[in-house]
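Action item from last week, closing it out:
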Amino acid sequence: MKPLIIVCGLNRVGYKILSLLRQQDALVVGISDRPIYKDQVNSDQDIKIIIGDLSSASTLLEAGILSAQTLVLANSDEAKNLAILMQARVLNPQIHIVNRLFNSNLGDRLDRTLTDHVSMSVSALAAPVFAFTALGHEAIGQLRLFNQTWSILDILAELKQW
C-alpha cells in the first residue's frame, strides 16, 4: 500500500505540488481553506480535496493525518503553516513535514530542532534557476553538490540518420 501524503494549502504552489504528486501516482489528499473551482482542477486526475480550517484537528483527521506519512505545508502564510505543524505533530508525532517558509532563519532553526522536518523557500529554490537562465542557459532546475550549485539544463538532442 502506498504511503499517504497530505498537501495543506492549495494555492498556486500547493495545487501544483498536489498535481505533480498525483502524476507520480502517489496517494495524495489536498486540504484547502476555500472552495476549489472546476477551472482550477485538472479533471484528468482523481484527487480527494478536503475543504476546511487548515489547522483544525477535525480537518486534518478527515484528511487522514493519523495514517499519513508526509504532510506538505504549502500555504503562503508562515504563521498558519506553524499552527498546522503543531496540530499535525500532536495528532501524528512521527509524520514527516515539508514546510514552505519564507524566513530561511526560522526554517534552519526548525530543521535543526524538529525531527522529520524540512523547510523550503520557493524564492531560494527559484533564484539559481533565474541566475542560470540570465546567463543564457535553458535552466529547468538546480541541485547542490560538493558545496556548489549546478544547473539542470533542458537540452534537445537531434538524432541524425547516418
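Closing note: Strands lie at 4-8, 27-32, 48-51, 68-73, 96-100, 117-120, 139-145, 148-153.
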